[in-house]
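[Meeting: bench + compute handoff]

Bench side (C.D.) handed over the final construct sequence. Compute side (W.E.) agreed to return the predicted structure before the next meeting so the bench team could plan truncations. Sequence as handed over:
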Amino acid sequence: MEKARAWVIEAKDKLAMRELDILEPGDYEVLFKTEVCSLCTVDRRTYKGTRNYGYPFLGGHECSGTIIKTGRGVVGVKAGDKAIFTSGYCNQCELDRSGRGTQCNRKKEMPKRSSLDGNILGGGLSEYLVIPAWQIIRMPDDVDMRHAALTEPLACCIHSIRKARLKFGDTVVIIGMGIMGYFHVKLAQMCGARIIVSETDEEKRKTAIHEGAAYAFDPSQCDVGEEIRRLTDGLGADAVINTIPFKEVWQQAIDMLAPYGRLIAYSSQNSKEPIGVDFGMVHSREIEFIGTLNPTIEDNQMAVKLIGYQMIDMEKVIDREFSFAQGKEAFDYACKPSVYRVMINYGKEDN
């Protein structure tokens, strides 16, 4: 049987290249060949042991590639097409069929995309995967495959922005100017919002202004609630989007909200500590707390269009590129502080 090379996390700080059997696509499935894989936060945290998905672990859910073969009943894509894959929506449960696929509760019952006897999230750190056709979206023929690999994180931010329900002239505060902060800034611009960025790093604050924020401030140097009210005629922000995982940020985010304001919990939280909330204040000010996790298939389709139409500069968030053979170097570099996205390009020659 033909083999696929794969980078598998076998334990904390232990990455190994394995050879896995290439599965044959069945009905309504495609054989997907990975071309570029971006190393996500989940991949990095699992490698460093700060997130435990169980070992061995095959990551890689920010990927682009080519369709190699299609099974019976597949329509819309064919061998040779460039494509990305979405999360493992089963497309059979009530949540998926009602547009709430981010909460799909049957995806773990789906066949594995790879022959790895272990845990798989995405799977694009393997050269070949078998994927249900409804989890595949075709990319334009002329797309930059490095940009296409970033469809999933952009789609996550689209899901977040849509939940924020921004209107023309709204003030939105974006906490954090990492890659997700950048995408939120660009998307909020498209909604006609006035953007304020909260960020401790001076260079990132400069980047926020350059990319379209009206104002950027250091939350460690001021009372954030007072600062936002100063900038909004005493009202506060219509929406606050938090992209960083520290529990201390949540109370700051709440303090920045205007009446009827919406707090978007884009980031997860590193610790499990509870956050004290005065729900009498929530009641009296009519504010909303809104969670957002992953993108729906529709969010992915929107992201594909934005990338295909080159409406967002994706180069801004690509930090460095490695060949497939340099997987260990890629992981170690990606785990450095303040690094944006690191790409493993399967077609790149070794340095």
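W.E. noted at the follow-up: Residues 1-143+313-343 form a domain with the Quinone Oxidoreductase; Chain A, domain 1 fold (CATH 3.90.180.10). C.D. will use this when planning the next construct.
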